[in-house]
Automatic annotation (TrEMBL):
GO terms for molecular function: electron transfer activity. Residues 23-209 form the Electron transfer flavoprotein alpha/beta-subunit N-terminal domain. It comes from Haloferax marinum. This is Electron transfer flavoprotein subunit beta/FixA family protein. InterPro entries: ETF_a/b_N, ETF_b, Rossmann-like_a/b/a_fold.
Amino acid sequence: MHTVVLTKGVPDFREGQVSFDENGHLERGKTPTVMNPNDKFALEAALQTRVRHGGNVSLMSMGPPGYKEVLQEGMETVYADDLYLVSDREMAAADTWATAITLSAAIENMDEMPDIVFAGFKTADGETGHTGPQANWCLDMPLVTHVISLDIDEEERTLRAKRLVEGDIEEIETVEVSLPAFVVTDPEFVPSYRTAGERLTLKDLRAETQARAPDYEDYLTVWDHADINVDPDYIGLDGSPTIVSSVDPIPKAPAEREATMVDPSDTEGMTEVLEAMQSAVGGDATAAEGD
């Protein structure tokens, strides 16, 4: 089974250093970036497929050169056999539609079409959830979204998945589609390794990918728009119909917080602390003190 997992770098909001240009566009090259958390569920699904059916897992992203480290993160923390980065200036400031066109063209440029394309459920920055389904529209595959578990019948060339109906954890349905297929995993996805053999294979594959990760560039292919044969007019900012009216910068957390030091032996000070805590939870400080 050859699977491709689509991922994206998102601002590491923990850093508090998100940078915007004068037009309100996020400057990804100047912003600390990590792998989109939801994409790791997609990568876990691809790893489960690799454990059960063998084959190859390719991890792909579109973005600036710094996204190489995002791909390395995916290889090290979950799994990847090889990496693909689609990157050049013509792709900058793309919306989800232009991104989908670029990624689908890159997938079609691979030596062979994958059996399954995986994508995560929406990104931590845009939160649209559009790119996966839009890329699937370009590829014209059966699409299954909000997937929480899956099984593959290699002989029948089918994929059976359990999915949340409209993202509702209380309502689950089972669907079956033919391969090749496109799968968008839900954050509720949990990989399953049913036998000791599968668990041993998982352990071996995790050790292999962690050994590869320091030399990830040996497994990396970088393509520009000419390599994947896309017209610059249809990608990047020029190919993006979305208009961003405004962007609110993310406020930086205060470096220090005010704190009042109270000695445990200071009865009056501890009483004030207790009263403040009881007030916050709606309790009775006097009753608590008597207890």
